[in-house]
Design a protein that fits this description.
This protein is an alpha/beta fold. The protein has eleven helices and eight strands. Bound molecules: ligand PTJ. Ligand PTJ binds next to helix 2, helix 4 and helix 9.
Length: 254
């Protein structure tokens, strides 16, 4: 299916990303409920003005510092992430000299394969975990398929980037002693509230910013990175996001 919306259409970008999801659905990358999840994200994106706001920039900086301090960070990729920003997810993992891991809520061997191959096509040298049959470790206390992870990846990682999911995996990963960074346009989601760092922004905007920040902070000393992480307060950032939304709504001129 071709994307034929003129570039000067006022909703061009939004329609383009919807198209990527539609194509992902046709290819078996995305599940139908992934379209619903995206719709929820879009609604919150409208509320934050479809721009990366200061609360997201602060979270991006802290996330980059935490990923750089980590001994073994992993970038988790679900169907929506693989449809919207596959190249950017791979680029971030490459910048961190680590792997991406396919992790699916609606897990089938076929989807594991399709997403694995899509990521491999982007960079054949990239270490991609969570391929067909690889997710054999079960996160304690997590009954959903999202609880199945690769023993070489998320199971062993000390920092995990878990974008676009509203569920209980973040809590369980934290129970295992890991640090969790999430990307979620909804500041009220479970993942947003339970993560160590929540980037309240559209993944299509903030993932490239995160990679850029990692590149910049690579030259910083360990002490500076630790200070950035220690000075970060996720609850404060979520409150800033909520305050921004409520003030924007109260001051909206129609
Ligand atoms: O590919 P699978 O099988 O792992 O399934 C993936 C989905 C996305 C279907 C599954 O994880 C799911 O149902 O997601 P949730 O629980 O609805 O959570 C998705 C969260 O991501 C919601 O809180 C949305 O607000 C948020 N979101 C959606 N699109 C974006 C987003 N956040 C940032 N950027 C987006 N583009």
């Amino acid at each position: 299916m071709e994307f034929e919306v003129p570039k000067n259409h006022p909703r061009y970008h939004s329609l383009y990303y919807r198209h990527l999801l539609e194509r992902g659905l046709e290819e078996g990358v995305v599940v139908k409920t992934g379209l619903i999840a995206h719709g929820r994200g879009e609604a919150f994106d409208y509320l934050i003005g479809e721009r990366t706001q200061s609360f997201a920039r602060k979270a991006v900086e802290a996330a980059a510092a935490l990923l750089l301090i980590a001994d073994y960070p992993i970038v988790s990729v679900n169907g929506n992430v693989a449809a919207l920003v596959p190249g950017e997810a791979v680029a971030l993992a490459k910048e961190l000299d680590t792997a991406v891991e396919v992790n699916l809520f609606y897990r089938t061997t076929e989807r594991e394969r399709v997403i694995y191959e899509k990521l491999k096509e982007i960079d054949s040298g990239m270490r991609i975990l969570g391929g067909p049959g690889d997710a054999t470790y079960k996160i304690p206390g997590l009954e959903s398929n999202r609880g199945l992870v690769d023993p070489r990846g998320i199971a062993r990682a000390d920092v995990v980037l878990v974008p676009l999911e509203d569920g209980d995996r973040t809590e369980k990963l934290r129970d295992m002693g890991k640090n969790v960074i999430t990307i979620d346009l909804n500041p009220l989601s479970r993942s947003a509230r339970f993560a160590d760092i929540t980037i309240v922004d559209n993944i299509v905007r903030c993932l490239p910013l995160l990679t850029k920040k990692v590149r910049q902070l690579k030259h910083a000393g360990e002490e500076e990175l630790v200070e950035i992480v220690n000075n970060y307060d996720n609850k404060k950032i979520l409150k800033e996001a909520l305050r921004f939304i409520s003030e924007r709504l109260s001051n909206m001129e129609l």
